[in-house]
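Q: What would this chain look like folded?
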Amino acid sequence: MSDPLTNDYEARLRAWAGRELVARRPGPDPVNVPMIRHWVEAMADDNPVYLDEEAARATGRDGIVAPASMVQAWTMRGYAASVRADDAPADADELKALLAEGGYTSVVATDSEFEFHRELVPGDHVSIEETVESISPEKTTALGAGRFVSTVKTYRDASGEIVATQKWRLLRFRPAEKPAPAEQARPEALRPRPAINPDNAFWFDAAREHRLVIQRCADCKSLRHPPGPCCPQCGSFGWDTVEAQGEGHVHSYVVNHHPRHPAFDYPLVVALIELTEGTRLITNMTGVAPEDVEIGMPVVLDWLDPDPDLSLPAFRPADAKER
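A: My prediction, written as structure tokens:
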């Protein structure tokens, strides 16, 4: 890498002032109504002079015109041409290489200033050419040390008349080196919080006391889980709870491998447990390898306390030792 502060390097950069960066190049398509329509719809620009001939003539124009800010769009070559090495302007590559020699390998656009000479109309075929106006001395920026490269883009119609000019400025910068993060112990990830609301808060409150409760209708005495405000059997809003015995069997299960969350160990067994009381709930399994879980397996209540603010019921095989 050349020292960007040497006199020779500075002189080579200054020599670019006034040089042609992109030779005059026509856009791929003439100004046309379909592209104008796409543009104004995307920009939510409802000015009628862009699509309504009558409205445009009412303003003294000969017909519809293209939005001024579209001038760049008419000269864009499209994605395929923009990535082909043989289509890249040689002078632009030469300047890019010179800036890279000084370590200015990153780029960000900073500002653009247009001057419009006349409105474009359908049928106009626009060309673009670009010259370097100046390259600044090295500046210190929040992104890193860099140089502002100012160019002038000139847009012409098919007869060579200028329709617009654009002053365009880029910051070519040397990315600032970030200090290596200090080594420190990463805090353990918290298990995702349950969505607690007035209808289920009682259940999580009981879980924090290591009590597995089931909501019971105060009128018809039917049990229900998940909790809800109204009995699905009789429609009553009255309810109380009973404490489950903590026994049941595996009604169904899945083994989760992905996506992974740092608070869990994988593979993770998620089971649908049917309690002896008849209700079912979704919990994790403990004390068993995923390949050993079976439908109908008898299970007993266990408890998970992942952090001081959360306790959740889990189930382990009835013949497994308590943790």
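DSSP finds six helices and 14 strands in the chain.
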